[in-house]
Amino acid sequence: MRIYHNQLTSTLNQGVKPVWLIFGDEPWQKNNSLFAIKEHAQQQGYSEHIRLTFDDKFDWSLLQQEYQAMSLFSSQRIIELELTSNKIGDKGAKLLTDLSQQLHQDIVLLIHGGKLDAGTQKRKWFSLLANQGCFLPLYDIEGKQLHQWVQRQARHYQLNLLPDVVLQLTELFEGNLNALDQELQKLAILFGQQLITSEDAEQLLIKQAKFNPFQLIDALLTGKINKAISMLDQLQQDGTAIGQLIWFVHKEIKQLAMMQEALTQGENFNQLCNEYRIWDKRKPLYQHALKTITAKNIAQAQSRLAEVDLLAKSASDFNPFVLLADVIISLYHGDELSALPLDYEYA
């Protein structure tokens, strides 16, 4: 049985599963899933908890002994096995295959690890366990699913958020559910059940958000200009070197120019992604940017970025972060900005 995180509560309410397989790299969902499964089992009388960790020195017979042992303290137990690597070898595969024939309702076997590849999901041990229990793969939550996740968590904390606050939260903390959940908890402490507007939340959220240049590039590619400018502001307050950000933005705009030129010459998008080592997950970002940003605007942004680089190195009369924001805006609104020189102070 395969479920997703938003189905966990309803699945738990259907009854105890003899085995759970939790695999993926998203930390909030993993911690939340493990806590919920163990808490539910304990409420059903599984009062003893044994925790094992697989590493390169792990003795698989220990798991077998624990599973077959009679407990002096409880007739119902949770045995949790953390896999620090999903490469469990022939011994591990054989033991888990054998164990799949011995599963019973007095023990909840909870196995978890990092992201599982498709090949491992087809292995005999995994299929046998998943068929008798529940496999919960953990994926990053994005877009519409992230909005729904925020709304669910807001209900959980009894928060009363206006829709634009939900949008602010998802834009500022996309890709970091732990930070997003912490911000919701802070809002619950500060505002209780009071209606929270974007003005109420804005200052708190901007101050708490932590960004890196890679997130800035993602906002640039997806055309989320307001988000990109908010990130630049926070990066400036955090003391990020402007030269580092200029390098990232220059590299990305130069790559967009080359990809756009190649596409006009008939090259295939997927082949270009392989050439530039763009992962499948990031392909939609580039598809959006290449479809939305014109060649004229890319050329203009490159020209203005060269000016920003020069001004950042030679003049202290300008705020280079503001000028870099101009470059990002010009990618999407170059026509409106073309008449405005960057050295506007002296124009």
Automatic annotation (TrEMBL):
Transmembrane segments in this chain: where? none
What Pfam families does the entry give? Answer: DNA_pol3_delt_C, DNA_pol3_delta
EC number(s) for this protein?
2.7.7.7
Domain DNA polymerase III delta N-terminal as annotated: residue spans: 21-136
Q: Into which EC class is this enzyme placed?
A: transferase
Matching PANTHER family: DNA POLYMERASE III SUBUNIT DELTA
- Specify the protein name: DNA polymerase III subunit delta
In the UniProt record, the gene name given for this protein reads holA
